[in-house]
Amino acid sequence: MFHVVQYRHLRLITQNSLSSMSLKFMLSRPVAFAQIWKSWFSSHSLIGNKNIILMGPPGAGKTTVGRIVGQKLDCPVIDIDDDVLETTWNMSVSEKLQDVGNEQFLEEEGKALLKFSASGSVISLTGSNPMHSAGMQHMKENGIVVYLDVPTTVIMSRLKSMKVDRIVGQSPGISLKDILQFRKQFYKRWYDIRVLCGGDIAAEVVAEKVLNAVKRYQNSELETFISTRTSRSGRSMEKDSSKYFSDVVTEGLAPDGGLFVPERGLPKFTAGEWQSLIEATYIERAQVILERCIHPADIPASKLAEIIGTAYGENFTCSKIAPVRHLAGNQFLLELFHGPTASFKDFALQMVPHIFAYCIPRSCNYLVLVATSGDTGSAVLDGFSRLHDTDKQRIAVINFFPEDGVSPIQKSQMIGCQKENAWSVGVKSDFDFCQTAIKQIFTNSDYTGFLTVEYGTALAAANSINWARLLPQIVYHASAYLDLVHQDIIPFGSPVDVCIPTGNFGNILAALYAKMMGIPIRKCICASNENNVLTDFIRTGVYDLRGRKLIPTFSPAVDILKSSNLERYLHLIANEDGQLVTQLYNQLENQGHFQLRKDLLEKLQQVSGWCSEKDCLAAIHSVYSTTGYILDTHTAVAKVVADRLQDRTCPIIISSTAHYSKFAPAILRALRIAEINQNPLSQLHLLSSYSPLPPVHWSLLETLKKGNEDHQVCAADMSMLMSHIETLIQNHFM
């Protein structure tokens, strides 16, 4: 073993050792910037103990970036190729490779890493170092591994300009592109931090991104959450009780009844960073976006990758996960129904249970409470039932749904999705009662305290009031735009509109968040059915529930009068004025209405419309007649509104939020089929006989076969709901 301070090729980077381009850049920048970095790192544990380890494919710029980072930090820089391998072997790397061959070269390279030790340095790995497990494990023990993630097409272009046509591990008959793709699995295994590097990004810019990423990695306390109802003066008083991602996932609802939001907002991506994801798969895009939204102190990159792979790897019937399909003219459908329960809720609820299981403490049992207007129920039951057996023993879920307020297939699906840790309870009321009841239970400290003391059980929420539910939805809105670019429909930077059937405001809020993060969305169009309280609010600024009764429609997921996630958006446009948000929602609770100030109404910046039941069915019939494609009832609502409101100057992406199979009676009626069998299975078989696009969602069949099982039903009474909760806790946890 040898230490870096004894290594004869150790060098401190000075301006003389930089390339002329780097030197010119450094001289043009204020000295103050470098001093700020040096000051920050000198007082930090990084330089005293840890190394910054740069990893990536050949051509990623590790050596050049490493030198610039070292100069900014005034610390040693080590290039594994030049300073370790060639010195150890007394020959060039290319000579060694030719001498021993690919397989033995990787082993010899790994042995050299195992004999190497350093601290407080910037280390640039070779492109093949990550392929040796023991060597990388040794390096990682005293370092923060930074992955310079450069698109494969960019790497190939750089290697071509460098006249490199073969790299380590590339056997005869294997293309350069294939070996670069093969290596990605090793890079993804080892990194702590990812830095996106586009095509023409300068090394100096990459170096600054590395330093910013390391700073973020070392400062998890910067990424805290606040309640939408926390006043500005209250923030400073609550610093000692800061909430982090793990906390808000576990708690769901803020103690003051508000919703959690990130105190410093969402991360911003540059245009180049988004463009680097154009060629990426859906899973790769999800990984990159969520890494920036979830601090690695809460969920490390490797664990997040495992969760995303589990959620989307085999549970979706389409390999593209969320494909974008051209409908007609400038209209495109974002198909969000390829998950196991056939609705957009699967995108979050195949992930959230695993995130929840990772974040919660092991010392307590957790009961997740859910209220649903239809699709959430089966999605959350399916998601939590897929947990590992050990997690199922300490995590259970109860789904409350309006007994007579969902479609027959949705109801059968929720009953059929019940498992040993997942139950459904029908409530003799509407969705708004179910959602309000859950909020009241969460804010009843006497009751939640009783459950903790008496049964060792804490409550948590999986509705879209939980922040973790929103993040996966941001991904598919961003991915849809990138798909249009990838398909050469638009160049990157050209705007699109999105039209989203909207009930609880979560899906459209995720689109607004994607826009804030840098996706060029021009207009977010809110589409409502006859329960058009949101449409009226966006138009007038008056949220008025007085005398308003819920109207059951063909699109039950939009049958909502109190849209929970609207609170997050109001908090955003009110410049995070929690006191104002509290006043508005107290007035809504006590008087049944509130009105926005004129300046806030102008900030809503949304376009909205609503659709009648007649127009909904007519749209389904019209689209099927002209294209052979069947829209579900919610997508039809959005289609009608999009037809009315789009100006046809840019593409419009319509969120297709559920598969039509879930609403077979309404679809059959829209297609003007006279005799409709009441049996859900018979309805699906009848639809299938029409050879529709997309095909009938056959994964529903097995679930529906179980849908005739018994389920519990309770009255619209808080004490009855609490009684059901206690009984289920006793049966599962005691």
From TrEMBL:
Gene3D superfamilies for this protein: 3.40.50.1100, P-loop containing nucleotide triphosphate hydrolases, Threonine synthase, N-terminal domain
Gene Ontology terms: cellular component: cytoplasm
CDD domains, alphabetized: SK, Thr-synth_2
Domain named Threonine synthase N-terminal: residues: 239-312
InterPro entries for this protein: P-loop_NTPase (IPR027417), Ser/Thr_deHydtase_PyrdxlP-BS (IPR000634), Shikimate/glucono_kinase (IPR031322), Shikimate_kinase/TSH1 (IPR000623), Thr_synth_N (IPR029144), Thr_synth_N_sf (IPR037158), Thr_synthase-like (IPR004450), TrpB-like_PALP_sf (IPR036052)
One Pfam family it belongs to: Thr_synth_N
Entry-annotated residues carrying N6-(pyridoxal phosphate)lysine: K345
Keywords for this protein: Amino-acid biosynthesis, Pyridoxal phosphate
One GO term (biological process): amino acid biosynthetic process
Any one Gene Ontology molecular-function term assigned to this protein's record: pyridoxal phosphate binding
PANTHER family recorded: THREONINE SYNTHASE-LIKE 1 (PTHR43515:SF1)
Annotated family: Belongs to the threonine synthase family.
Stated name of the protein: Threonine synthase-like 1
Protein's organism: Antrostomus carolinensis (Chuck-will's-widow)
Lineage per the UniProt record: Eukaryota, Metazoa, Chordata, Craniata, Vertebrata
